[in-house]
Design goal:
- There is one protein chain.
- By secondary structure, this protein is an alpha+beta fold.
- The chain folds into two domains: 256 residues, Porin; 138 residues, 60s Ribosomal Protein L30, Chain: A (2-Layer Sandwich).
- The protein has six helices and 17 strands.
- The strands form four sheets. Strands 2-3-4-5-6-8-9-10 form an eight-stranded antiparallel beta barrel.
- Helix 5 crosses helix 6.
- It is rod-shaped.
Length: 497
């Protein structure tokens, strides 16, 4: 009898030693080496997870033919996580049950000594959630099978209970199924406390003899309610906590965080000028200063004074003229513009184009050649011409007035924020505002303009809120070109950018 007990306990210890701390292989990805374990991806240098060793003081009782009394026992287990949801567990249990029926018509009494070993699969119920990191609570269910030895001392039929003179049902190794559920509470990375309930279902011809009597219709059940104190065993330098304590979505969250950091780095704009650092040729532009598509401070009239400091940003000095630190011509000739002056402006524009045209301008073809005209930019969500652009539009008006018969396309744009319908309305209003200014302030015929508008699909800069995209361009109108009809809702303030 003692030999059987020792053999069963040795078998349990041998099985538990077979559980190693190896992780679960993860397939290699293209362009990278194979990842050895799940924990390698989630825990850096850690290449496995600890296993759990638990001790369980238990309350035991048999559900059988005889009224049960309180029974007590002790259990031990080893648990090893396979992944964030599933674990394997080896259990050992020793305990004593008793029961008694003491009625006038029947007298039965027994004591049962139970020894068992079981292997179970355990599933965590509360780890399939995206939020959170280390769990503080672990709910689980378990099921498995094993072997048991139980010895029963029972009251003989027709005789009272007497120590040393009762019937004995000797130990015999039989098999059982076991199922249960439990909850544990994490106290630290090493220790957790729990409570659980298990039911052992015996098989074979002894299935109805846990209480010593087999005159019932159903097999007896060995029930165990336990408290447990559990310890995570392993080297914390190379092994993580068991995976059922950590978030199952940690690898995905780390991949998302990595992708987000790469996107943030690729679209970083340190000086806030609307041009990402990857293409910004002037990385320390002062705040609010207009720049071209390469992040360079604009100097539209090439007078050496940047537009944000230039009071006359679109009036290049003529031969013999000088400028001050504010871009103002000191010895300016204010004679009315002549045809020769228009030609001079055209020639200067052509010369700038040959030398490398400054971004932020568009081209208009005239009888005397190409003229480069600056774009008009708008604040977010607005379509009103700024006072600071009056000088620019004055230059545009001079070109039109100096070229009778010239027709221009006035084309409005938006950036990439807002919905498509609202952006079309806003780009239409911007183009219309520029046309109205030229007509009302400079007396230019409305027939000289062809209004067009575009939405977010024609962005210059691939940033949603770049002011460079919120623009109006001046282009040459080809023969027979007609205006685009106003979009639906153009008469209402529907919003847009």
């Amino acid at each position: 009898m003692k030999v059987l007990q020792l053999s069963l306990l040795s078998l349990l210890l041998a099985a538990s030693s077979a559980i190693t701390a190896q992780g679960i292989p993860v397939p290699a990805t293209a362009g990278s080496d194979a990842v050895e374990t799940t924990e390698t991806m989630t825990m850096g240098k850690k290449t496995g997870s600890m296993f759990e060793f638990g001790i369980r003081p238990s309350y035991m009782f048999v559900a059988g033919d005889v009224q049960t009394d309180a029974g007590f026992g002790v259990g031990v287990h080893l648990r090893k996580s396979l992944d964030h949801l599933f674990s394997l567990r080896i259990d050992g249990l020793y305990g004593v049950n008793s029961g008694m029926d003491d009625r006038p018509d029947i007298s039965r009494q027994y004591e049962n000594t139970w020894i068992s070993g079981s292997a179970m699969a355990v599933m965590t119920l509360n780890n399939f959630r995206f939020n959170g990191d280390t769990r503080s609570t672990n709910f689980y269910v378990m099921a498995g099978a094993g072997g048991n030895l139980f010895e029963v001392e029972r009251q003989p039929f027709g005789r009272p209970w007497q120590e040393g003179r009762n019937d004995i049902i000797d130990q015999e190794l039989t098999v059982h199924a076991v199922a249960g559920a439990g909850v544990t509470f994490r106290l630290s990375p090493r220790i957790n406390l729990g409570a659980e309930f298990q039911s052992y279902i015996p098989f074979g011809d002894r299935a109805d003899r846990l209480d010593g009597y087999d005159n019932g219709q159903y097999r007896d059940l060995q029930n165990v309610a336990s408290l447990s104190i559990n310890f995570n065993i392993g080297n914390p330098a190379s092994q993580s906590e068991p995976l059922y304590w950590t978030n199952a979505f940690d690898p995905m969250r780390q991949e998302l965080a990595l992708a987000t950091s790469k996107i943030d780095e690729a679209t970083k704009d340190s000086d806030g000028d609307g041009v990402v650092d990857a293409v910004d040729q002037e990385a320390n532009t002062p705040a609010g200063v207009p720049v071209d598509t390469r992040g360079r401070v604009l100097d539209s009239d090439k007078d050496g004074v940047p537009d944000h400091k230039d009071i006359e940003p679109f009036f290049p000095p003529r031969a013999g003229e000088t400028i001050d630190e504010n871009g103002m011509v000191n010895n300016r000739d204010d004679k009315p513009i002549t045809e020769d002056r228009v030609q001079e402006m055209i020639d200067a524009s052509i010369a700038r184009s040959k030398a490398g045209n400054q971004a932020g301008t568009t081209t208009v073809r005239t009888d005397r050649g190409e003229v480069f005209l600056p774009m008009i930019y708008f604040p977010l969500g607005q379509s009103t011409v700024k006072y600071s652009d009056y000088g620019t539009l004055s230059s545009v008006a001079r070109v039109i007035q100096g070229n009778p018969g010239l027709r221009m396309v006035i084309r409005g744009y938006t950036d990439r924020t807002g919905n498509t319908a609202n952006n079309e309305v806003l780009s239409y209003r911007r183009a219309l505002a520029v046309i109205d200014h030229l007509v009302n302030q400079h007396g230019i015929s409305r027939d000289s303009f062809v209004l067009q508008y575009r939405g977010e699909e024609n962005a210059i800069v691939p940033l949603d809120k770049s002011y460079i995209n919120r623009r109006v361009e001046f282009l040459t109108a080809s023969a027979g070109m007609i205006e685009e009809p106003a979009p639906a809702g153009a008469g209402n303030n529907n919003g847009g950018y």
